[in-house]
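Subject: for your reference before the review

Hello V.,

The reviewers asked for a structural picture of the protein, and I figured it would be easier to keep everything in one thread rather than splitting it across files. Below is the amino acid sequence we used in the manuscript, unchanged from the supplementary table.
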Amino acid sequence: MVPYNIASYALLTEILAKICNMIPGDFIHTFGDSHIYDNHMDQVKEILTRDPEKYSLPKLKIDWGTSYVDNINKDIRWLKSFIRISDFELEKYESYPAIKGKLSTGLK
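And here is what came back from the structure prediction:
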């Protein structure tokens, strides 16, 4: 769930910056309780072999034109009225294949 949350918060940061006509800074995430289960060691070893610089970072393109500013009012429901999935494009996204692991409860 953490990768989804990180992506969601980063997207929200981009959206808010765009609405406020600002440039977003860095999104920094801190793990409070991270752990690795015994049955995930093969997956950990696999991810540690990957070069983080193999792929360049993708670019998020948000295309609202200029009309989105006119839709802003004090009621947050305006977001639903003009944000569409087709407004967003992730350019040059490349990644390693997914690493799957068995769900673990930590119980033996």
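For the response letter, the relevant points are probably these. Residues 33 and 78 are 36 Å apart (CA to CA). The first strand starts at residue 59 and ends at 62.

Happy to draft the paragraph if you're swamped.

O.
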